[in-house]
Specification:
Largest sheet: 6 strands, mixed
Order of helices and strands: EEEHEEHEHHHHHEHEHEEHH
Mean pLDDT: 89
Low-confidence stretches: 260-266
Shape: globular
Number of helices: 11
Helix content: 25-40%
Strand content: 25-35%
Length: 266
């Protein structure tokens, strides 16, 4: 096994806006590097405001965007070496909007069975059903509650838990969750974040949690990377960064977290 489950080396992504002559170059991610140890399952939170480059970084890890330069390595193997199906067995996404993840015209179980049969390697629908029932149970749902239903028959929180269950089916090494609680009712966000903490040990899966919400990152992370205007300005163990931020921007984000006992200014 490699020393690192994830290595990002000098990763950059540029976008060209406008025409060839008068176009403008935007650097969305600029020379980002980090490593995530492979000794145990980890949660890495990548935090920053809108426009910081964190979602562009997530999309490159998910191979939805090609880097302009640099390299991403998963468990010692460059991502460019993976065939599509092999990649999806190792890396799974959870997107921000659970209602756009599933087609309104397809029953939810269709996605779950396709994932089990194509990526988990089960041979029969009976085996697939057992796998699906197990992962649904792990996120607090029973398969009887899901079979035969369509996306509009679930709440946003339920649908996001189904997204998490689907991501677990192939037993991936890494799950990339891009703002997974942003469109969920505030009262339910902690439930989703709690799931990540429990599932990382239960399934021995690593999570990359992309968020602008440092309060949930503070709660869930083993490691934190702070991004600002495309650059990674701070990276390290969560406890170290949150107790002793080395960059003023990280300190500013930390100061924005509501604290018990604080009062609103009049």
């Amino acid at each position: 096994m490699a020393d690192f489950i994830l290595e990002i080396r000098n990763l950059s992504r540029e976008f060209k806006l406008g025409g060839i002559v008068f176009g403008k170059k935007i650097v969305a991610v600029d020379q980002v590097s980090l490593t995530l140890p492979a000794d145990q399952s980890q949660i890495l939170s990548i935090v920053g405001e809108s426009g910081s480059g964190k979602t562009t970084l997530a999309r490159m890890i998910l191979r939805l965007l090609e880097p302009s330069s640099g390299e991403i390595i998963l468990d010692g193997v460059p991502l460019s070496h993976f065939q599509k199906q092999q990649f999806l067995k190792n890396v799974q996404p959870i997107f921000q909007n659970p209602f756009s993840t599933f087609s309104a015209r397809k029953a939810i179980e269709t996605y779950l069975f396709e994932t089990a049969l194509n990526l988990r390697g089960v041979k029969t629908k009976k085996q697939a059903k057992e796998v699906i029932a197990d992962v649904l149970r792990s996120v607090g749902l029973e398969i009887s509650h899901v079979l035969g239903k369509y996306p509009n028959q679930f709440s946003g929180g339920e649908l996001q838990r189904i997204s998490i269950a689907r991501a677990l089916i192939p037993k991936p090494k890494l799950i990339v969750a891009d703002e997974p609680v942003a469109m969920i009712d505030a009262s339910l966000r902690t439930n989703i974040v709690n799931l990540f903490k429990r599932l990382k040990d239960e399934y021995r899966v690593n999570f990359i949690y992309i968020t602008h919400d440092l309060s949930t990152a503070y709660y869930v992370s083993d490691y934190i990377a702070t991004m600002y205007k495309g650059s990674m300005i701070e990276f390290g163990a969560a406890k170290s960064i949150l107790n002793n931020p080395a960059h003023p921007y990280t300190e500013l984000l930390l100061n924005s977290i509501p604290k018990v006992g604080d009062k609103w200014d009049d």
